[in-house]
Amino acid sequence: YLDAGAKAWITSFDCWNPNVLYSGADDSKLKVWDLNAGIQKPVLVNSTSHSAGVCSMQTSVHEEHLLVTGSYDNCIRLWDKRNLRC
User: What DSSP line would sit under 60-77, residue for residue?
Assistant: First the structure.
């Protein structure tokens, strides 16, 4: 997961693009990894949307651009994968 002290709690492949991996951890960050670019660092880190650990996520099998994340902050976020920033 590459952050000192952070523990990854969930990973999920994008069902529309098997080269994209999402991860969530106890540091409240949602990370996006492009496996074609390597695993040295994520291509995107969103650390502002959840205030507690990200513990669930799923891409939509019906809508290509939808991702849902859940957190111990009692919030569920619905994302447009084309713009994962807040």
Answer: -SS-TTEEEEEETTS-EE
Across the range 31-44, mean pLDDT stands at 90
Show Cβ contacts of residue 4 under 8 Å, excluding neighbours closer than 6 positions.
none
Q: What's the Cα-to-Cα distance from 74 to each of 25, 42, 54, rounded to whole Å?
A: 15, 25, 10
For 56, the token pair is 């669930």
| Cα separations in angstroms, 47 against 15, 29, 33, 64, 69 | 23, 4, 15, 23, 13
Say if residues 41 and 69 touch (Cβ distance below 8 Å). no
Measured CA to CA, the distance from residue 72 to residue 53 in angstroms comes to: 6
pTM: 0.86
